[in-house]
Amino acid sequence: MLRSVEDLIVHITEAMTLLPGDVVLTGTPAGVGPLNDGDEVAVTIEGIGTLTNKVIKRG
């Protein structure tokens, strides 16, 4: 990342108020490629669980 998380939060909160539950997206880490039809994407939140979705091609 070019800026620290702290710097990003400071910059964002100069323009708007962040509320509980807001998400700050910082981009894609190095080495991550495109998603392909049939891939699975899983997001885990500790204490809540894991949400898994299969990527499907539209059209």
Topology, please?
Blueprint: H1 5-15, E1 40-45, E2 49-54
Antiparallel strand pairs: 1-2
InterPro entries: Fumarylacetoacetase-like_C, Fumarylacetoacetase_C_sf
Keywords: Metal-binding
Domain Fumarylacetoacetase-like C-terminal: 1-55
Structure description:
The chain is of the alpha+beta class. The protein has one domain (5-54). The chain is built from 1 helix and 2 strands, in the order αββ. It has one helix spanning 5-15; strands at residues 40-45, 49-54. It has a two-stranded antiparallel ribbon. A hairpin with a 3-residue loop joins β1 and β2 (49-54). The protein is extended.
What tags apply to this protein structure?
59 residues; alpha+beta; 1 helix; 20% strand; Fumarylacetoacetase-like_C; Fumarylacetoacetase_C_sf; metal-binding; Fumarylacetoacetase-like C-terminal domain-containing protein
Structural class: alpha+beta
Q: Count the helices. How many?
A: 1
What count of domains describes the coordinates? 1
Mean pLDDT: 91
Q: What is the approximate shape?
A: extended
Q: What Rg, in angstroms, do the CA atoms define? A: 16 Å
Beta fraction of the residues? 15-25%
Major beta-sheet overview = 2 strands, antiparallel
How far apart, in Å, are the first and last alpha carbons?
A: 35 Å
As a percent range, the share of helical residues equals: 10-25%
Please trace the helix and strand order, writing H or E for each element. HEE
The total strand number stands at 2
Placed side by side, the strands forming the largest sheet appear as 1-2
Low-confidence stretches: none
